[in-house]
Amino acid sequence: MRGDLRITLQLTIVALLLSVSPAMAQNQQSTGTRSVSKGSQQPLTVGGKFRYFANESFRPGVFLVAGFYTGLAMANPPKAYPREWRQGAAGFGRNYGDFIASWTAVQGGKFIAASALHEDPRYIRSSSRNLFARAFHAVSFAVIDKSDTGHNRPALSNVAGAFAGDFVGNAYLPDGCNDVAHGLQRSALALSGFATSNLVDEFRPEIRKIGHKLKIPFIDKF
């Protein structure tokens, strides 16, 4: 169970922390924001989608979050992990590399699918003011998103990213964690992580408002 929860923890941390990166401003200007209001989005070209996913994959915050997550993973590793994945600098490096490889593969898989299938990778915020309606919209957007022309469609790029990001680990994870069953479990949990990311994007104005009251530094970059 610990191993299964690993990817959910990973994507939740990413969703909550990566968007504070200074690269956000550049991303908003050159590729469109990570989320946009309904009716205000402009279609992204393949080049725009590439820049969008490159920014998502390699923004500076990724590497900081990877270190934080790696520390948590080593403090409570899956039971199947051997000693070389549990202890020391070598173990830290393996877990750190696992995070970076998984996250980059998620973004790469999403980019390829979104480009080939003409899918908009951005989250489209709800126009409702109802809390529960907005939350439902955010969660459902993980499986039903928008095409480049603004029509509803299955979020196949999320599925592709989830499979790419978590099956890539089967190439290097230790025995007992690198079979098809574990890959499918990691992919399912990774897909649920997109819902978490959408919730953060949907309620970002409220999060910023709370952050201002608590005087949290850099909250306006969130």
Question: Which structural traits does this protein have?
Answer:
mainly alpha, two-stranded parallel sheet
Descriptive overview:
It is a single chain. By secondary structure, the protein is mainly alpha-helical. The protein has one domain. 64% of the residues lie in helices and 5% in strands. The strands form two sheets. A two-stranded parallel sheet has the order 1-2. A two-stranded antiparallel ribbon has the order 3-4. β3 (144-146) and β4 (152-154) form a beta hairpin. The model is unreliable at 1-5 and 13-32 (pLDDT under 50).
Topology:
Elements: H1 2-17, H2 23-30, E1 35-37, H3 46-58, H4 60-75, H5 83-86, H6 88-116, E2 123-125, H7 131-140, E3 144-146, E4 152-154, H8 156-167, H9 180-202, H10 204-214
Parallel strand pairs: 1-2
Antiparallel strand pairs: 3-4
Report the sheet with the most strands, covering strand number, pairing sense and barrel closure: 2 strands, parallel
Radius of gyration equals: 17 Å
Strand sequence of the main sheet, in spatial order? 1-2
- The tally of beta strands, per DSSP, is 4
Mean pLDDT over all positions: 80
Question: Short description, anyone?
Answer:
The chain has 222 residues and is mainly alpha-helical. Helix content is 64%, strand content 5%. It is built from ten helices and four strands; from the N terminus they run ααβααααβαββααα.
